[in-house]
Amino acid sequence: MKAIILTVNLLLAVSATALQAQDNKKAREERNRQAVSEMLEARRYKVDVDYMNPLRGRGRALTDSYSLEVRNDSLISYLPYAGEAYSVPYGGGKALNFKAPISQYDMNEGKKGKKEIRINVSNDEDTYIYTLTVFPNGNTSIHVQPTQRQSISFSGELELND
Question: What value, to the nearest 5°, has the Cα angle with vertex 157 and ends 69 and 29?
Answer without folding.
Answer: 120
